[in-house]
């Protein structure tokens, strides 16, 4: 049970990083930590102690219930793969924007990047 | 009709990549293909009105294992809004986007956004909803920063950071739902939760989803990104973002998940009502002080989304089914109306900027002499949003107020009427500064915008009037959709 709570702690750390840090690159790292905490949580949902890979071999064919009880849940792993790919897309866009912002403002400090107000 | 449903996602997504490739060889192909694509989608959406409830299983897998695309009346309403607005925005963009470089890239991102929104609305399971939501969001982050000026990049980054947190919260919520129920299919989860009773961890999911989707729909206090992001995008995209995106990703998802999947209770009803009322009041008060046309319109989007949320809140709270249906129908109708008049207003703001080169109201004036079509469209849309009969905004606001009265929530009804009055005030200011008044000497040479932009504006103005006058004909459809929304999702083939 404790690992689930640790995942949430990591999620909170990411949000803290996002709020407290003024540097754009650190904010990006904060978002990435949040995403990884979520992905880790997803993986843990499918985890089973001493579980086996969810692939049916010929000798397991006649005892499906035992196989189902023993194998790990494959669905969260498929979800995590998708969510990692989405995370990569987000990260690329964030870094591209950060580079462009640095070209325009000559800084990574968010307190100086503030032409939008009100 | 059933076999055409996947086309809502497949056509724009395929075209997005196809136009980008063909634009290497010929310049005009991306214009032609995008326009044909969105016209086809709008036609499909109109045809879907009479189709009834449909469920399409992708790949022929048995329910609840495969990917399910679900169509009911709520979906049809959203698909209509998305695809008709996308059609008009593309028509407008044909001329408007000439000023920008990289037009094919713009079309590719626009089509991806349409594909994402159609996917969110059609998705019958939570994870596909999340994936399509991310596609639409990523495309919209890139589109907000499309001008690559310093302000646009800043707005895009702000939107991206906040949107990224919201998406992670939604995914965490989905993970907890899966851990509790062992399913991702919405109808399956609804069945599981209604037979197995309440679980305490579901309350945590309520909080995560309300934060995540609340941020996507820009409810106060999650609204900080909207007034920066929506004005920074090119005008057709501002119109798409304000007119459609916040509804498809925010309001629709809240309605579908809380009404259809979890089933609403009194606590959720109060939360929705309070969020809605707060957004209404704060949005409209912040809008009053703005002199940038697009920024003012963006604040009004927050306020008008508050109306929709209030309608849904009454629907969740009201004891009698008739009052609940009236509240939800009012909210849904207001969502449709907001799509017409806010799109129209943002396109008008874009047209004014296109011709005069400024969005500052204090520098404008007397435009009705120089830009008759744009001015008329602005006036019609302003009267609609302020709730003046016989335009469409009046009917939806009236439905929400009557539902609030019948549910004995008198204070909220009074606030709703008051906000409507302040909205009128705010739009009188817009009219006075831009459309009427003295024509400034430097505005003497201003000309009306190109034909394709005028057509989009005229069609939207006619829709504002038509939906208002034709209200008695669509009332039955709306009430049907509302009472359908009140029930839990079931699988039907």
Tell me the Rg of chain B in angstroms.
21 Å
Which chains make the largest contact?
A-B, 34 and 35 residues
Determine the number of helices of chain B (DSSP H or I, runs of at least 4 residues).
19
Structural class of chain B: mainly alpha
Helix content of chain A: 55-70%
Report the β-strand fraction of chain A as a percent range.
under 5%
Explain what the structure shows.
The complex is a heterodimer of chains A (118) and B (493). Chain A has a single domain (2-105), classed as Orthogonal Bundle (Helix Hairpins). Chain A is mainly alpha-helical and 118 residues long. Chain A has four helices and no strands. Chain B has a two-stranded antiparallel ribbon with strand order 1-2. In chain B, strand 1 and strand 2 form a beta hairpin. In chain B, helix 6 (150-181) crosses helix 9 and helix 12 (293-317) packs parallel to helix 16 (392-406). The model of chain B has no long low-confidence stretch (mean pLDDT 92).
What brief labels describe this structure?
heterodimer, A: 118 residues, Helix Hairpins, 4 helices, B: 493 residues, mainly alpha, 19 helices, 2 strands, globular
Concise structural overview:
By secondary structure, chain A is mainly α.
Describe the protein's topology.
The complex is a heterodimer of chains A (118) and B (493).
Chain A: H1 2-20, H2 24-46, H3 64-70, H4 74-105
Helix pairs in contact in A: 1-2, 2-4
Chain B: H1 7-22, H2 29-47, E1 54-58, E2 67-71, H3 73-96, H4 103-122, H5 126-144, H6 150-181, H7 186-196, H8 200-216, H9 226-232, H10 235-262, H11 266-288, H12 293-317, H13 321-356, H14 367-370, H15 372-386, H16 392-406, H17 410-435, H18 451-469, H19 471-486
Antiparallel strand pairs in B: 1-2
